[in-house]
Amino acid sequence: MKQLFTLNPYFLKYKYHFVLGLIFVTGSNYFGVLIPQKIREALDLVQEKIVGFKQLSGADKGIMFEELSNSLIWFSITVVGFMILKGILMFYMRQTIIVMSRLIEYDQRKEIFEHLTRMDQSFFKSHKTGDIMARISEDVSKVRNYLGPAVLYAVNMVTLFVMTIYAMLKVDPLLTFYALLPLPLLSISIYYVSKLINQKSTAIQQQLSVLNSTAQETFSGIRVIKSYVKEPQFFQFFSKQSEEFKIRALSLAKVEAWFQPLMILLIALSTLLVVFVGGIQVFEGKLSAGNIAEFILYVNMLTWPVTSIGWIASIVQEAEASQKRINELLEVKPDITNQNQHIYPFFGKTEFRNVTYIYPDTGIKALDNVSFSIEPGQKLAIFGKTASGKSTIGDLMFRIFDVTEGEILIDDKNIKEHNLYYLRQKMGYVPQDVFLFSDTISANISFGVEEKDKNSIQHYAESSAVHDDIMRLPDAYGSMIGERGVTLSGGQKQRIAIARAFMKEPEVLILDDSLSAVDSNTEQKISQYFLSALEGKTSIFITHRANNLLQYDKIIVLENGKLVEEGKHEELIKNNGFYASIYEQQRMTADNTV
Ligand SMILES: Nc1ncnc2c1ncn2[C@@H]1O[C@H](COP(=O)(O)OP(=O)(O)OP(=O)(O)O)[C@@H](O)[C@H]1O
Ligand SMILES: [Mg+2]
């Protein structure tokens, strides 16, 4: 139960729901227990009258019959009245305790989601998305089963037990003993059956997620699958997984089929004992026939709570395991945190001082003792072969990771001393792998700003040379992107991401290979805009193109994580190093294509 104690603050928060629930449960059970007593009284009355009835003359018989039916009607009204009261209180008991569980579920899910959004990149690399999703959906639901149904049935069980057994003992302790004899057996067997059912359901859930991910991957990669003519293999794999699902589902159905018969058998055993032992006592004149009927009703009333003991035990066990997984998630602290509430003004002077970065999971040294600096308002290009560490520089500047060695200074202060949120607010980043949300184009462009002004959205789209592309779409700026909407080309996505970053009007802009998928005409067009828009802003261009369209103040060249060349375009050409050779290559291909 230790793991579930973390939920206690929630109980405290919703204590009124809980206490009211307790009152309603008690009230509902109180009226429930009164019903068998009324029925016993009615039956005893009938029996008593029947004995007297036979000795009466015709006219008196009529009067007595009248009296009896009046009392019976009265009994019926009372019983129905009690049932209605029990029902109303039951309604409110669910309205309080089940509602409480839903409110806590809502709070808990929000808490987990908020916690997850605070986590950094390394967390999402070490936790599979599917696993995180399972914790947020299934585990939270399992915990809710404990908070709602389990708590409700536990409270219900205890109150009903105390009241019913008290009423039974008042009638006859011996009969009570016999009536209750088979019930522990029922409880234990239900516990094992429920446990088995839970295990089998989990196995089914797991297989279902395998099926889901198989189908999802098949449909996402359908183009590749078709081009390699691999449909039959994928179908075979899916069929095999489907078969496994069927086997597991059938196995669950078998166990579930045991549930009802087992319950009925043990209840029948209880009833049989009541009738047998009670019958003897009626014969001996110790009890009335009404008592037997009363007892049978009590035994029936106890059926559900006794069944629920086993059920509650297995729900609590499951919730315990789920809460453990949730707690593990909540205990992870992000590595990258905001260490300063104070906000320093931001000018954009940036310096890398002997920066080394090693990816902790792979041990790859992506940057090796790299030093460079740029002044506010300058334009820097980072140039280098693939996997030379360029994108890592972008990620470090955005504090997606923190350096392994060395330091990054922004405006002469260590990057960690700056307010993290302010820093990110003032920086624009267009990452290499563009991600757009499944939303409208205008919502994507204006993602970084509060004011979603139509004209400025269009202005930024025009500047990024994507406006004409957007206007050709069926709903123009209102077109949905993604699965249920339009599919954009790589270059279109890049330009929308550029418009999104520019619209935020950042002080420092980092563009990671953002023009790789646009043709050279478009590149020139955007470069023209960049030149005017980036006036006075610090900007970093990660690029594979050795042209100087943007008149960089400085170009740094990386090779295997090391800085190998540094200087202006002309200086690097004179240097005759890697940059110059690529420049020459690109110039020749451009000449040839013209
Ligand atoms: N998230 C990551 N986890 C582990 N290793 C990584 C990660 N990202 C990059 N690397 C490794 O770090 C090295 C540098 O990668 P980086 O992405 O910085 O290169 P790049 O210069 O941007 O390459 P490209 O031009 O292909 O984009 C590579 O060897 C890469 O395998
Ligand atoms: Mg890269």
Key phrases:
594 residues, alpha/beta, binds adenosine-5'-triphosphate, binds magnesium ion, ABC transporter transmembrane region fold, Rossmann fold, four-stranded antiparallel β-sheet
Strand content: 5-15%
Radius of gyration: 38 Å
Q: Sheet bearing the most strands, described?
A: 6 strands, mixed
Strand tally is 10
Report what the structure shows.
It is a single chain. With 594 residues, the chain is α/β, with parallel strands linked by helices. It folds into two domains: 3-331, ABC transporter type 1, transmembrane domain (ABC transporter transmembrane region fold, Up-down Bundle); 350-433 and 507-593, Rossmann fold (3-Layer(aba) Sandwich), CATH 3.40.50. Helix content is 65%, strand content 10%. It has helices at 8-13, 15-53, 58-118, 121-126, 129-171, 173-180, 183-220, 222-227, 231-283, 289-331, 390-397, 420-426, 441-445, 454-463, 467-471, 490-503, 520-533, 569-575, 578-593, and strands spanning 350-358, 365-374, 379-384, 405-410, 413-414, 427-430, 508-512, 538-543, 554-559, 562-567. The longest helix is centred in the N-terminal third of the chain and has 61 residues, at 58-118. Residues 359, 361-362, 364, 366, 384, 386-392, 432 line the site of adenosine-5'-triphosphate (ATP).
